[in-house]
Amino acid sequence: MKKIITTIICSLGMIVCFAQQEAQYTQFIYNKLAFNPGYAGSYDAACLTGIYRNQWIGLEGAPKTMGLSFDMPLLNKRVGVGMNINRNTIGITDQWTIDGIYSYRIALGRGTLGLGVQASIRYFGLDYNDSRLQATQAINTDGGIPTGEQNKYLPNFGAGFYYSTQKVYFGVSVPRILNNNIDFNNLSGNEEGTEVTHAFGMVGVMIPLTSKVKLQPQALFKYAANSPFDMDFNASLIFDNKYTAGLTYRVGGSTDRAGESIDILASAHVTPNVLFGLSYDITLSDLKDYNSGSIEAVLRYCFGSSEGEDIINPRFF
User: Fold this and answer.
1) If we measure between CA atoms, which residue out of 122, 44, 38 comes closest to residue 81?
2) What's the CA gap between 246 and 62, in Å, rounded?
3) For position 150, what pLDDT does the model report?
4) Residue 202 and residue 169 in contact, taking contact as beta carbons nearer than 8 Å
5) Domain hosting residue 216, numbered range
6) For position 75, which CATH number holds?
7) Which residues contact residue 16 at a Cβ distance below 8 angstroms, ignoring those fewer than 6 apart?
8) Rg (CA), the chain
9) How many domains does the chain have?
10) Which of 80, 84, 177, 286 might form a disulfide with 99, Cβ 3.0–4.6 angstroms?
11) Could you give the CA distance from residue 74 to residue 306 in angstroms, rounded to a whole number?
12) Spatial contact of 163 and 170, defined as CB atoms under 8 Å apart
């Protein structure tokens, strides 16, 4: 019975994955380039960020995500360039994405507006030879069930804007606009599976409480066609511009639950140029009885300011 229940949940998880196809990050505050190309070049230095996420620990076939991003300002900070490399696996699905990003940056009021575009190529593969797949009869007896490995390469493009000052930021983006066909079992000639357009909105403010403590509330809004509206709301305290501790509430899950998860976050500037962060998600949805939560780790290294100097005051936007 336990195996049957787990199989049903994994199947539902695959349905959710196809509806919400972009990778999910709890520490979006340190990984904005994955959501918005307008962010490229927003920091005063070239930065390299790595992130790893293990979602729904203990549930076989649950999503795992690895990402690496790089961006830097150029031409006296009027231009930003960047790149994302991302791998997301769930069940027998393996998805790789590479983004090339360009942002033109305009001084506006007390801040800077970045207008970004990106081009991407995505590898989308399914492995029906996976040893975890089991059946009561030989798969080849049913011609409607695919066999072997199947894959596609899908080009796409997107755009977004990102505005920030020392005290506030906000942005809107659509990283992938094209609805590519991802159907591998197109026996009837009709497309039954496509990439879904995702839109993201983000906003945050910095509120000084004392000379050493700041409050940083922020939110990430997520929308995918034919899926419920989703949101992550985070409130963090920053101590001495070095240490951050916060909580995130993620809307979602079934209608009779209090949301998708409550997330605990902590990070530290180990040096002025190195940031390390950890988070743990406590599942609130119907899956809470079948997993031990989700963990995520992020490591960011910034090479120095664009003028070649060390970073003295780390920025949080």
Assistant:
1) 38
2) 25
3) 86
4) yes
5) 2-187+194-305
6) 2.40.160.40
7) none
8) 21
9) 1
10) 84
11) 8
12) yes
Euclidean distance between CA atoms 51 and 186, whole angstroms: 35
Q: What is the pLDDT of residue 243?
A: 96
According to DSSP, the β-strands at 207-208 and 198-205 are: unpaired
317 within domain boundaries: no
Q: Give me the sign of the Cα torsion angle 306, 311, 312, 313.
A: positive
User: What is the block-wise mean pLDDT of the chain (317 residues), using blocks of 10 residues?
Assistant: 39 41 88 96 93 94 95 95 96 94 96 97 88 72 73 95 96 93 62 80 96 96 83 96 96 74 96 95 91 96 64 53
pLDDT recorded at residue 7: 40
B/e letters for 6-35, b = 16+ CB within 10 Å, e = fewer, are eeebbeebeeebbebbbbbbbbbbbbbbbb
Q: What is the helix (H) or strand (E) element at residue 155, kind and residue range? A: strand 149-164
Q: What is the pLDDT of residue 252?
A: 77
311 within a domain of the structure (yes/no): no
Coil, strand or helix at 223: strand
CA torsion, points 137, 14, 101, 296, in degrees to nearest 10? -110
Cβ-based burial of 171 (10 A; exposed 0-12, middle 13-18, buried ≥19): buried
Report the distance separating Cα 82 and Cα 30, nearest Å: 15
Q: In DSSP terms, which residues pair with 118 in a beta bridge?
A: 101, 158
Instruction: Give the per-residue pLDDT at 103.
Output: 98
Quote the DSSP letter at residue 110.
Answer: T
Q: What pLDDT was estimated at residue 191?
A: 53
Q: Whole-angstrom Cα distance, residue 131 to residue 13?
A: 19
The dihedral built from the CA positions of residue 14, 16, 19 and 23, taken in this order, carries a sign that is negative
Q: Are strands 294-305 and 93-108 parallel, antiparallel or unpaired?
A: unpaired
Do 91 and 57 meet the contact criterion of CB atoms below 8 Å apart? no
| pLDDT recorded at residue 232 | 96
Residues ≥6 apart with Cβ < 8 Å to 171? 32, 36, 38, 39, 160, 161, 162, 163, 200, 201, 202, 203
Residues in the chain: 317
